Amino acid sequence: QPLHTLRNAEKELLPGYNQFEWQPALKNVSSSWDVGIIDGLSGWTSSVDDVPADTIARRFRYDVALVSALKDLEEDIMEGLRERGLDDSTCTSGFTVVIKESCDGMGDVSEKHGSGPAVPEKAVRFSFTIMSISIRADGEEDAVTIFQEQKPNSELSCRPLCLMFVDESDHETLTAILGPVVAERKAMLESRLILSVGGLLRSFRFFFRGTGYDEKMVREMEGLEASGSMYVCTLCDSTRAEASQNMVLHSITRCHGENLERYEIWRTNPFSESADELRDRVKGVSAKPFMETQPTLDAL
């Protein structure tokens, strides 16, 4: 046998290895990792300089992790199709998967008598949960849900994607590590996954909902000032004083795009305002937001 066919045969024996394809192929995603755990800073080594880059984070490639999670649910998917009376052989496309993303600090993880590499003594974990899988059969108006996670907040349904040594308030390092994750996620939104489930190739689309971030993390990812800010709300522009006067009439006004525009104003100060005037204009946006969170009610 030529070497590459042996290599491919060997790969398929690895635990967690699944053959899959994206149509169209994913942009901005390295094609070299077939399986396994990769350095969380892949491609960003030069941007984080105060700790040895290869020790700071470990993660799965996002699409490989999603494939693995779907394969774990293979029996549930087939069972769901049967229960709904859907003919398995006609259901090959039109699957929609909703993913809940979560990210939170894990507190102090320092070694007591450590002689390991100098890394930050805080850790952050980014994980995801498959919330539901539905299918829209040919010619049907409504999608039919064939899988719903019964315990969406349980540790058991939550899959770790990236573990990092970083303090959750270190915006720069967090951005550097989760930047590639965001790029992969963005690429997956514009493509379909082709994966064999129940012996047939089927196509899946993914939707991501960032509802597993607590308020501190939402502020971090959206580039807002931290909790001590006079702008208290992650969803609108009210100040502490306004909020205490008015406990009822709030509207959700913030969105990711608007925060980006405000960051640009903060960065460029186009109207040559003083620091206080500028701050009042951008309403507590001070860092570049890097992860899109929809203005839905968050985990709190």
UniProtKB/TrEMBL annotation:
GO terms for biological process: adaptive immune response; B cell differentiation; chromatin organization; T cell differentiation in thymus; V(D)J recombination. This is Recombination activating protein 1. Residues 21-93 form the V(D)J recombination-activating protein 1 pre-RNase H domain. GO terms for cellular component: DNA recombinase complex; endodeoxyribonuclease complex; nucleus. The gene is RAG1. InterPro entries: RAG1, RAG1_pre-RNase_H, RAG1_RNase_H, RAG1_ZnC2. Pfam families: RAG1_pre-RNase_H, RAG1_RNase_H, RAG1_ZnC2. GO terms for molecular function: double-stranded DNA endonuclease activity; histone binding; protein homodimerization activity; sequence-specific DNA binding; ubiquitin protein ligase activity; zinc ion binding. Residues 231-293 form the V(D)J recombination-activating protein 1 ZnC2 domain. Residues 97-229 form the V(D)J recombination-activating protein 1 RNase H domain.
